[in-house]
Amino acid sequence: MAKAPTRENRRALEMLGLDVEQHAWYKNRTVRYNRCPRCATSMESVAFGCFKCGLDIPNYFTDLDLTPDPAEWPGVVKQMQLRAAAKAKKKTQ
Questions:
Q1: What is the pTM of this model?
Q2: Burial per residue of 82-91, b for 16 or more beta-carbon CB atoms within 10 angstroms, e otherwise
Q3: Which of 2, 60, 70, 91 would be 25's cystine partner, CB 3.0–4.6 Å?
């Protein structure tokens, strides 16, 4: 799995005179942002917690009995699935 491009990666490619658009890791990296439901701080959609107010977003959706849209909240959906699987595994033990 390729790592996300860093600012240094982009600068290095530009300094070498290379076209940054021809590199797959550069083209495929699109960052989507959401707003925290509590404080409206902008954060990446893969995040599952707010760094400003400390809201645990998977718990927020679980407490309200809501299912977030996987396209908008991929990190939250994945975290909710992991927590549900861990809870189910704990019950069977």
A1: 0.62
A2: eeeeeeeeee
A3: 2
- What lies within 8 Å, CB to CB, of 58 at 6+ separation is 48, 76, 79, 80, 83
Residue with tokens 């019950």: 91
- Where do the structural domains in the chain lie, given as residue ranges? 1-30, 33-92
Look up residue 18 and give its two tokens: 């290379």
From CA 58, how far away is CA 34, in angstroms rounded? 14
Other C-beta atoms within 10 Å of 29: how many? 14
In angstroms, the first-to-last Cα distance of the chain is 34
Which helix H or strand E contains 10, and what residues bound it?
Answer: helix 7-15
Model pLDDT for residues 10-37, shown as the tens digit of each residue:
788 778 877 766 666 555 556 788 999 9
Let me know: does 26 contact 12? Beta carbons within 8 Å: no
